[in-house]
Design brief:
By secondary structure, this protein is mainly α. The chain has a domain of about 100 residues: Alpha Horseshoe (Serine Threonine Protein Phosphatase 5, Tetratricopeptide repeat). Helices cover about 80% and strands about 0% of the residues. The protein has 20 helices and no strands. The termini are far apart. About 45% of the residues are buried.
């Protein structure tokens, strides 16, 4: 046991010195020498998680659970690792198991995030509210509650929690992005400053950039909007969203139809089965008096699930009816 303890302490020193490989070896050796002592295995599991070695972390933590079924940190390591792998159903299950041992506010927070990722937003709300009762000034909990309330359409409550998250920690970037998205459509002037802060904290936040460009456009700041759309194109050159959004902007605010159409068609070229790409191109083709061509893209958008595309197709059909039919003769 003394040798295991010495190895364990040496492993901690190696980890603190930044030598993760050595620390892992020493934790493993300590675990083998003291199989009834869980701490080396727990430290090893958390170190593997920190090193983003998700599958290895899961393996070590599962071994711990077999010997110590009530060892909560092991469940957390497994849940977090599965969440990083995008396997949200498994992550949710292990967070739920961890909570049967102790309802720690951080685990309630993580569980709420997992539930939201699975679109179980009512249960996510309950979980996050319980976390907030235990830790009322946790900015991450307020932020995630804000996200859940926005998804549920409870915008005033969402805004309250997002602003509270910012109030608690003004340097926490995520709430700015979420709040800016919430405000962009109906309160674009207010959204602009919020979204600029979101981008200051994360210059590669393409979604905030897209919402900022839209908010600037709605506020009549066309030159600034144009600049943001171009930045978004540089950031996401292989995504269809920047091309669709910029094409839509150009179609409404610039006289160069050919350029607007090029961007809209490029979006369809990148993602031909995206309902929004087909809808936006079809919609503008109607404005440009090219109804039959518009029908082709709108029909595809409708097949892909876009409800407004069907309305525009009906409008095209009404315009193409003979005058005698429209008059009732």
């Amino acid at each position: 046991m003394e040798k295991a303890q010495a190895l364990f302490e040496a492993a901690i020193q190696a980890e603190e010195a930044g030598d993760s490989d050595k620390a892992c070896r020493l934790y493993e050796q300590a675990s083998l020498l003291a199989p009834t002592f869980p701490h080396p295995g727990v430290r090893l599991a958390f170190l593997l998680k920190k090193e983003r070695k998700w599958n290895q972390a899961i393996r070590v933590a599962r071994q711990l659970i077999k010997r110590w079924p009530r060892l909560q940190p092991a469940y957390v390591v497994i849940a977090h690792s599965y969440s990083q792998l995008g396997r949200w159903e498994r992550a949710e299950r292990f967070y739920r198991q961890a909570l049967t041992i102790n309802e720690h506010p951080n685990i309630l927070l993580f569980h709420g995030v997992a539930l939201s990722q699975l679109d179980q937003n009512d249960e996510a709300e309950q979980c996050l509210c319980k976390a907030l009762k235990l830790d009322p000034d946790n900015e991450e909990t307020h932020y995630n509650l804000g996200r859940v309330y926005r998804i549920k359409g409870q915008f005033d409550t969402a805004e309250k929690h997002l602003k509270r998250a910012i109030e608690i920690n003004p340097k926490y970037g995520f709430p700015y992005a979420e709040l800016g998205e919430l405000l962009a459509k109906d309160r674009p002037k207010e959204a602009i400053s919020v979204l600029r802060k979101a981008i200051d904290y994360d210059p590669n936040d393409g979604w905030s950039m897209a919402y900022l460009a839209d908010a600037l456009s709605r506020s009549g700041k066309l030159k600034a909007a144009d600049e943001q759309y171009r930045r978004l194109l540089e950031l996401w050159p292989n995504e269809s969203l920047p091309y669709r959004s910029y094409g839509d902007f150009l179609a409404y605010h610039r006289k160069d139809r050919a350029t607007a159409e090029w961007y809209l068609r490029k979006a369809v070229e990148i993602e031909p089965r995206d309902q929004w790409n087909n809808y936006f191109l079809g919609k503008h083709l109607i404005y440009w008096d090219r109804n039959e061509e518009a029908r082709r893209f709108l029909t595809k958008a409708a097949r892909l699930g876009h409800s407004k595309a069907r309305e525009l197709i009906r409008w095209i059909d009404e315009q193409s009816e003979p005058l005698s039919s429209q008059s009732g003769f």
